[in-house]
Amino acid sequence: MTSAAPPPPAPPAPGDRRPDGSGAGGSGDPWAAGGLVLGGVLMVVYGLFAVLQGIAAIAGDEVYTSFGQYSFAFDLTAWGWIHLIVGVLVVAAGLGLFVGAAWARVVSAVVVGLALIANFLWLPYQPFWSIIMIVTGLFVLWSVFSFRSSRPV
């Protein structure tokens, strides 16, 4: 009786990933893949907070106060609309990351960049919250740019 050698394993199907995050559908770095998911979650949460922040600024100018003269001073209602619009865009881009849309990474980078600028300009009104959102936005940008999919777009 002769025993034949087992056949070699079949190559992975397109889009398959190994548990370590590598493979045709992954980045090769499980931290980056997990970071992209966390970035999407943070984008949705940040966007919802920005929407609520915008509604609060639109509803009443007494919610936020400013410290003295500021070069980038806008009416608080205008700031409310800025945060509301940016928040809706951030939520939409974050949801796009979850479905794996090709446009979502580019739009996420642009929208989070706008959110970073808005939060920098919002520093006199809410300094602690703005710093938290800037750091969160920087992490989201890292997660979006560090994920490299080998899937054809």
Short description:
This protein is 61% helix and 0% strand. It is mainly alpha-helical and 153 residues long.
Strand residue percentage = under 5%
Q: What's the end-to-end separation, in Å?
A: 51 Å
The low-confidence parts are 17-27
Form type: elongated
Order of SSEs: HHHH
**Percentage of residues in helical conformation:** 55-70%
Radius of gyration from the alpha-carbon trace, in angstroms? 21 Å
Rounded average pLDDT: 76
| Strand elements, count | 0
Instruction: Summarize the main sheet.
Output: none
Annotation field: number of helices: 4
- Global structural class: mainly alpha
Blueprint of the fold:
Layout lengths: L29 H30 L16 H24 L2 H20 L5 H20 L7
Helix pairs in contact: 1-2, 1-4, 2-3, 3-4
Question: What does this 3D model show about the protein?
Answer:
- By secondary structure, the chain is mainly α.
- Helices cover 61% and strands 0% of the residues.
- The protein has helices spanning 30-59, 76-99, 102-121, 127-146.
- It is elongated.
- The N and C termini lie far apart (51 Å).
- 29% of the residues are buried.
Name some characteristics of this structure.
4 helices, single chain, elongated, 0% strand, mainly alpha, 153 residues
